Amino acid sequence: MSFSCDMTNKDFNNQLIECSILLVSLLLKQYKSKAIDITDFRDHTTNKISYILNNFDTIKDNMKKKSIEDLINECNEITNSN
């Protein structure tokens, strides 16, 4: 079985970055509401944040970059303080 896809690697990468950002945001909200603990928070954000940072230069919108930096900084503060 073969599937056809019109998505380029760049498109796929952009979607994966967006998905990672949304998931990290959701995990942060879950941690703040005490729905997950610090272990789950760390376990589920580490790779996503790493991926975002490794592809940060592909993001062109400066306002978006700033909001991503703020999100990552907040996550880092949490993981470094616990």
Offer a concise description of the structure:
Helix content is 74%, strand content 0%.
Describe the structure.
There is one protein chain. With 82 residues, the protein is mainly α. It has one domain. Helices cover 74% and strands 0% of the residues. It has 3 helices and no strands. α1 (9-32) runs antiparallel to α2 (38-54), α1 packs across α3 (62-81) and α2 (38-54) runs antiparallel to α3 (62-81). The protein is globular.
List keywords for this structure.
single chain, 82 residues, mainly alpha
Beta-strand share of residues: under 5%
* Percentage of residues in helical conformation: over 70%
Mean pLDDT: 92
Secondary-structure element order, as H and E? HHH
How is the secondary structure organized here?
Layout: H1 9-32, H2 38-54, H3 62-81
Helix pairs in contact: 1-2, 1-3, 2-3
